[in-house]
Amino acid sequence: MDRVLIRQLKIETVIGIYEWEKKIHQNLLIDLDMAWDNKPAADSDDYQYALCYETVSNRLTALITEKPIELIETVAEMIASCLMDEFDVPWVKVTVMKPGAVPGVAAVGVEIERGYC
User: Fold this and answer.
1) What would the pLDDT profile of 3-29 be if each residue is shown by its tens digit?
2) What is the number of other CB atoms lying within 10 angstroms of the CB of residue 68?
3) pLDDT of residue 117 exceeding 80
4) 91-99: strand order across its sheet
5) Which are the catalytic amino acids?
């Protein structure tokens, strides 16, 4: 299975359950592994057959910043649904990390896999 990868997509957004978190922007770091048949793009050297990293990154940034979200679990599910519904990605692994969320911990996060390989 071919995969398209995006590592540490940084999205600044309003995220959290505490009242003080709802008044500030915090960073999320997103890692994506997306199943994608890269052979047509590679064989033709034609962009139209590729899964565009920039388009995906821009869409996810818009999605996650359009309204406040409380849970990173929600962020992960929103990302997986978007990729599968809008980009026809058949399988995705999404990791969402929230740096600095817990004192003494570099980051906390969740990881989900959706779809079929």
Assistant:
1) 999 999 999 999 999 999 999 999 999
2) 12
3) no
4) 3-13, 26-35, 91-99, 107-115
5) 98
